[in-house]
Amino acid sequence: MVKIFNLDFYDENLENLKIELEKDIDENKKVRVYTPNVDHIINIKSNENVFSKYSKAEYIIADGWPVVATAKIKKTPIYKITGVDLMDELLKLADKKSLNIFFLGATDDTLEKLKSNIERDFNNINLINYNNGYFSEEENERIVKKINETSSNILFVGMGSPKQEIWITENIEKLNVNIAIAIGGALKIYSEEIERAPKFVQKIGMEWFYRFMKEPKRLFSRYFVKYPKFIKHFIDEIKE
């Protein structure tokens, strides 16, 4: 583990992470996986409640080049592992071991497309269940019960950060899952509602700009209002 922004980041590659998560399933453990990018770091730094929830995760993975670059400058390198890539590996693992999976978040329409695409690409996943992310506090216990009744091994939660991380942390003790992962926009990518950036764009660290060009109205505030705030956190971090 490498401590950056007061969080303990996982410092091995995707292949090793996949091995560890498979072992967690085999040993019937219960773990949380969060994948912070710059937007998440800003939320963590500005809200103590978000930080306290985030810091409880067993695996904190760097999903963003600025976070990886900060670690590199501090001479404590970590790997960039995107939520989409990790979701892909977990689906392969579920297919390999015939696991049950559950998706929480997005709309029913998105989830129906998502389920159809996964059934098309993976033949051996045992059960795929889902519930949209639009439910009240009064409905929370019903959602937890629904997840548990499916005997799901992996729970993918895509309700936006920090809502998804807070929800997982507040409900993890009641959930009978092995892996609860906060996955954000990966649900829309797998449903093919949003196209992922080409590989070469990902490699040069410009996937964020590709996403902005696809959804300028939704992402303008994030990238051009919130992101400049990260510079201060970056400077403070490398001074330590």
Automatic annotation (TrEMBL):
Pfam families: Glyco_tran_WecG (PF03808). Signal peptide: none annotated. Keywords: Glycosyltransferase, Transferase. InterPro entries: WecG_TagA_CpsF. One of its GO terms (molecular function) is hexosyltransferase activity. It comes from the Bacteria. PANTHER family: PTHR34136, UDP-N-ACETYL-D-MANNOSAMINURONIC ACID TRANSFERASE. This is WecB/TagA/CpsF family glycosyltransferase. The lineage of its organism: Bacteria, Bacillati, Bacillota, Clostridia, Eubacteriales.
